Each structure stands twice: as C-alpha cells, then as structure tokens.
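Predict structure. Input: Nitrate reductase catalytic subunit, 734 residues.
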Amino acid sequence: MLFGRKKRKPISIPAKKVAQWKYTTCNYCSTGCSIEIGLDENQKLVTSRGHAGADVNRGKLCIKGLLEHDLFNSPGRGTEPLIRDKHFHPFEQTSWDNALDTTAEQIKKIQKQYGRDAFAIISTGQLLTEEFYTLGKLARGCIGTNNYDGNTTLCMASAVSGYKRSFGSDGPPGCYDDFEHTHCLMAFGSNLPEQHPIIYWRLKEALEKRKFPLIVVDPRVTMLAQFADIHLPITPGTDCVLINAMLHVIINEGLQDQAYIDAHTQGFEEVKALVQDYDPKTAQHICGIDEDKIRTVARLYAKAPAAMSIWTMGINQSTHGSDGVANINNLNLITGNIGKPGGTSLSITGQCNAMGTREWSSCSGLPGYRYLENETDRQEIADFWGIDPEFFPKKRGLAETDIFPAIETGEIKGLWIVATNPMTSMPNTGRIRKALEKLDFLVVQDVYQDVEMNQYAHVYLPAAVWAEKQGCHTNTERRVNLIDNALPPFANAKPDFWIFNQLAKRFENGKRIHFPDQPEQAFEEMKQLSKGRNAYGKERTLDISGMSYEKIIQARGIQWPYRESDTGLKGAPRLYTDGKFQTASGKANLLPIKFVNNNEQPCQQYPFWLNSGRVVEHFHTRTRTGKIGNCNKFSPTPYMEMNPDAALELGVEHQSYVRLTSRRGDAVVMVQLTHRVPRNMVFIPFHFHDCVNRLTLGLLDPHSRQPAFKQCSVRIEAVDQQQAAQLNVERRAF
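Output follows.
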C-alpha cells in the first residue's frame, strides 16, 4: 500500500504511432546530440529519440532532449509581430512589413542623431550558424554599429580569451574521444551530470572500460564531485592559485615535459620564476586545499602518460576567468598534454551553438576567426561582401556587459535583442531594468512573446524555433551538425534567417551585399571564407570547405578542420597535433599568471558565499523548459541549498522560505538543507527570473569582460512565510 492507497494505479504509456522519423540536432546545450523526431500520419510531432548511429550520443538523450518535441506548441509562443510607442503602453498587432520598416527607420534615426554606435545589438548562442553569419553581415556590413555582441560573453568569453592568449586562436583543441585515452582527468568547476549529461555518460563509459583518476575542483559537492576519486573543495575564485601551486610542484620536482616545452612553447622561464611564489604551504591558505593534497594531485597529473582538463562556468564566470583558462593551458603545455589522445584543455561550452557564434557571427571580429584590428582581414571580407572596407570599424566595440552601462550614460539609445534574456541572465538585474527604461527604442526577437525582455520592447518579432528552421550547429568538440526543417513555423512566426534577410533590404549596403535566400547557400559562402591562411600566413584551423549538408547528415556530424582535400566523412578530432600553433612564432604562449584577490568575500555583515549553477531539468532562463511540464515539475520554484549546521544556528527549517540580501538586492527562495554546500555557502540555480541575479555582483574579467557570477556574499534573513508563499505562487504562474 502506498500512502494509504489500497489500489495502486498501473503505469500506462500511451502509444505514439510514428509514421516518419526526421533527423535533427538538439537545440539546448553544447553536447550536440543527434535526434530523430517522430511525426504521425497527420504530420504532428509526437516524440523524440536519440540517434543510435551518431558518435556524440549513440542513441542517448537527457530529459531536455527527450522532451524537446514539446517545444513547438508550448504556451507563450509569439504568433504575430507587435508594436507600441512606449514600453508601458499595450502592444498592438502589426504586419511584418510595418514591424521591419519601423525597426529600420528607428535604427537609422538613432544613428543619424547620435552616431552609428548609438544602436547596439545583443545576440545569442542559440541560433543556427548560417543565421549567425547572416546577422553578422547585417550588423557589420549594413547597420554598421560596432556595439554588437552575443550572450556568449556571459558564459564562454573567458574560454575564448584564454585560448587566444595561449594558442593564438579560439577553438577547443580536444574532443570527447579523449576520455577513452586519458590516464587522469581534472574537472574545474564543471558538473557534467547536470550540465552536460551525455558528455558525462561518455566519461562514465570510459571509466568503466579503463579506470583512471578523476579529480574534481569545486567548492560544492556536486554530483560529479560525489563520483570523483579526489574532490578539492576550493575557496571560490582561487583556481589560479591552485594551478600555480601545482606548477610549482611539477617544475621543482622535474616532472615537466621539457622536450615539448623547448620545441613548442615560449615563456617557460617567466612562468617558472612566478610559480616559485606559490609553494603549496603558502597557497593552501589562499585556495583552501591542503598542501599535501596539492602535491598529490600535481604528481598524479604530471606522471600520467596522458592527462586532460575540462572546465565550465566555475572557471569562466570569474574576474580571473581568462587567467584561469590560460593557466589550465599552462598546466597542459608544461606536461605535454596538448594535441595528443587523452591530453587536452577542453572547455565544455554552454549553449548549443556558442561555438557557431564564436566562429561566424562577427560579434568580436569578422567571419572565420578574423579580426577587425587586422587590415588584411577587413579588406578580405569587404571584397567578398562587395563593400568599402572603411565601413568596418578598426577595433572591436563594446561587449554585452559594457553595453548596458553605456545605456545608463546615454551612449547607446537603441538596442536589438535576439534570442536572449538579459532581464534574467545578467548580473545585478535591478540595474539592467533601470537601464532598459532609458532606451529610445528596443526591439526583441524571440520565440516566446512572454519572455521577460519583452516588458520593455517597442517592437516584438516572433521567431521560429529549432526544427522549424534549417541550418547547422557546432558543438563543444568542433563538430558541425545539421538541424533539418521538420515543421513549418508556428502561426506567423518566421525563421531568424528570413528576418535578417528582410531587414537587410531596408539598408543601403543591403542592396550591395548578396544575402542568399536559403541557409545552404549561406553555408557555401562560409565554406569559401573558411579556406586560406590567417594573419601569420598559417593554414586556418577553422576550415569547413570539404563539408556539405549531405555529408554532415551521412556522418551525423563532422569535426573541423575538414578541408576540400579530405576524404571520408571524419574531420580532425584534435588541433595542434603537430605542435604548431596559430601564433606569429608558431609556438604556444606560456603565460605567468599572478593572482590578485579582487572578489567580494564573506564578511560580518554578509557572511555567506553565494554560488550559482545549472540543474539538469532546466536550461538557462527557463524560457523554454519552464513551459514543458515534465521538465518544470522537478524544479518549479526558486530554491537554495543550505548547510544544515548553518541552518540550525540561524533557526532556518527545511522547505521554509528565507530572504537573501546582498549589497545590490534581495531574493526570496525556498530552503533545501543539504551537506552539498559548506557552512559558509549557499547555492541557487540560475534559471529563475527575479532571483539569484538580483544578488550577483558582476565584476568583469579584464580580458574577456565576462561577469563573476559565482563570487559574492549574502546574508540570510527571515521572511513572512505567507507572503513568500504567495510570491512563490505568482512566480510559478509566470
């Protein structure tokens, strides 16, 4: 008998009669799982399943992928373009022509009055690569603003910056297959079972075949930390100190790969000199890891025949994020673990196509990893597009995290938001809300009409979602895979590719630049631009010239580089296998990383660290997963993890409500007591609106401009339980 019930209701699974399966790629995280979506005889999409023949996921999907077919008819979807004069007026339905005419007119008006850079664009990591390329054409070649960036600044900018500083170019050098070959894996601030479950399954499968040490560096006892051989519960934001101490041990004990260092790197003596100040006895008092444990881990890593490092937001979302990535690269270069099976620095990317925006969107430069600062790159793209190279700016403009302060100061008067939700995702959201109120014009382009950003929009453009479109993604291991069009767009929503093309026609340069009608034609342009040599005369790593949609589907994804001369259906699994890097000298840069502790830290007034992260059932700001019942039911309401001993001291009960307060704002959450967090820390999932990012500090990394979401301090206060419960009900309804 279950809870007093005498008759147990049997579980029944309704039959889903599938008449046709269509191939596509998951549109959530960066793993890049191949999916088949099933349509019934009425062409209604009824189910999803993993593709067994795909190398990435081999038939498996996480909960989000299994339920992804529910996206198409989920509530809140945009059906028609909307328009209004003021953000506090009600929206009125309008035609696509009027919405796009108004948008173009407002952009031109703002630029004429205040200058080209007074209008800004913030994109995403969720579009298809051909859409990113087309938006970059529109932004760089037609609109001409230099203040154009993507929300990948909030998640992957530090990885990009660190790769560029160390290797001379962006692009993860390793692949998932490295799990099969490594002899030691170190995970920094990465909780694979919840963030990237299928990558975790690949790791787990490798561990079952051949046991090797798994070391997890994380201040919280994450699910991955629970499975680790060694868990290092580091003081938040001090990863650079830990790595410097490891380098101290490796170099002083002669465990480095000196032959590799001499042949393929530069800067070793500077790093060797700096790490002498980071002996484990001193470092332990900063990073919180015992000196003997530091020595043990350093020896394990250096002595392994092949060792690899992975990381996610625990490294990136810090004021030392770029330095942390560069230091992980130092660790792998000094031990000879770059470009060989099982030896790599592998950033586990955030969004499904964050790699695509890095490669082709022109956010931080020009297509194909080209630089605005390089005259040859500007000339090459101007010639290809058929415009004057002087139309391009000569250096990168503002990052997303600098655009919002520029609205406050009046430098930016208009903003276009494409498939992202800064009202929830940006730190210190109270400040973001006030900035948005100052805009003369805001256009929001999104799948969902009820996205929080739309509260301040003057024009709303309803976009198609996922398999209502066609185009490619690039995943964490540089694998290009195809989203195939399975359904027509919902109501009068339009593919982002179509929206960008139509808006381009309303600008002078849009009459000069060719904007292909079909995504596959844009892909052919990208293939041409991927060939050739970079500014140092070296063959481009980002070469997709041998790919085609047909080959991608046959292979279930192809890794770049994959050149015209390549045969078969497999690209290069690893970069830098020949020890040659994308720098002027051809050698990798070893960079001395000095740690400066500029984090906000717990104090008497705010005694708790605040940590944030992802849960498996939700994705980013819940714009999609919050509407899918079987995802949302597991985490329908904002909550925080709190240590039971700390709760006992404060008289806080399990599943009661409390108010968290920082120097910037407050948030009301439900308490979940757990020993996963230490006594001086609380953890909140970042997915919920008006929650954790009301508290976060958002100091920026000086290299990447990425915010430090994970290092700030809060205090816990009592709250009226009935009022908090009412707030909870309102949030769940939203």
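Residues 96-114 form the longest helix (19 residues).
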